[in-house]
Amino acid sequence: MSHSTSSAAAGDIPVFDRIDDFRAWRREQLKQNKTVGFVPTMGALHEGHLSLVKAAKEECDSVVVSIFVNPAQFAPHEDLDQYPRTFDTDYQSLASTGACAAILLPRVSEMYPSGITLDRSQQRGTFVDVLGLSHQMEGIPRPHFFRGVATVVTKLFNIVQPERAYFGQKDAQQCVVVRNMVNDLLLPIRMRSIPTCREADGLAMSSRNRYLTPEMRKVATLLYRALGAARQSVVGSGNKERKQILEPAYGIIEEVVQQVKDQQLGFDVRLDYLSLVDVATLTELEQLEESQPAILSGAVYVGTTRLIDNILLNAEEL
Ligand code: PAF
């Protein structure tokens, strides 16, 4: 696939790898009074991403998808180099929706004019940090992560200037961080979070699922099942105490960890964390108040692949 920077033949999606060229296209949308919906991605697209594109198309005239593997959200020991880069199939998937008007494929050198190194102590330039929401849950094992996300999303918003932006609920903390950032920085953008797309057995779709072997894939639903059991302990049994709510979830995970060990499948399953937080403040809850909107979430390792998932309590959208 060549990366055309000019509008290609009818039916093709223009791909912009220069920010100036994209801005010229964006000005045309404005002249034609078209609203723009934006779906930021790191590529390796799956049905979950395409559901965001379709949701955007229902609410906006033109949908822009960015594909950018953002170095600033990876730590030196993480999988930046191994992160899947699958532009040709991503392009075909977007074309198949018939809903994508333009693809933004920016270069690292344009996105980070001051340069970018993964070693935080050596970083130079401007970063966006959403304090109070970035250092719990996913921010504990990945303290650099939300600063990288908030920074790149701000840059992308500045380029794309969307009326609306679409994020997957699977990354619940990311939705809360971005929503607060939009609010704090007075960005004229309506933030939308779209429900998680799941495989038939409940596994949340993720670009990292492709790393699972068939044996790993069989047990990978453990987190979704664990979170479902915790929700059931609230809605079915009326439990309000954190310990009681999370107990059945820990039970399911311990059972699977033991089964995988006993069957000597050649990989381990390990719980990273389970969390129950208030939707607005992301503070851990010891007690769930009546109708309090909350997020039940967690992360597990299946082999070396880290899977995350969440379920909302008393809330429809993040
Ligand atoms: O969710 C993602 O894929 C990324 O965190 C995002 C929002 C595209 C920023 O790099």
Euclidean distance between termini CA atoms? 36 Å
Bound molecules: pantoate
Instruction: Give me the Rg, rounded.
Output: 20 Å
Low-confidence stretches are 4-10
Q: How much helix is in the residues?
A: 25-40%
CATH architecture of the largest domain: 3-Layer(aba) Sandwich
Beta-strand content: 15-25%
Structural class, by secondary structure, is alpha/beta
State the strand order across the main sheet: 1-4-3-2-5-6
Strand elements, count: 9
Number of helices: 9
Report the top-level CATH class of the largest domain: Alpha Beta
What's the CATH superfamily of the largest domain, by name? HUPs
Number of domains: 2
**Sheet having the most strands:** 6 strands, parallel
Secondary-structure map:
Blueprint: E1 15-16, H1 19-31, E2 36-41, H2 47-59, E3 62-67, H3 87-97, E4 102-104, H4 108-111, H5 145-160, E5 164-168, H6 172-184, E6 190-194, H7 214-219, H8 222-235, H9 242-262, E7 269-278, E8 294-302, E9 305-313
Parallel strand pairs: 1-4, 2-3, 2-5, 3-4, 5-6
Antiparallel strand pairs: 7-8, 8-9
Helix pairs in contact: 5-6, 8-9
Bound molecules: pantoate.
Pantoate (PAF) is lined by residues 40-42, 70, 73, 149, 152-153, 171, 174.
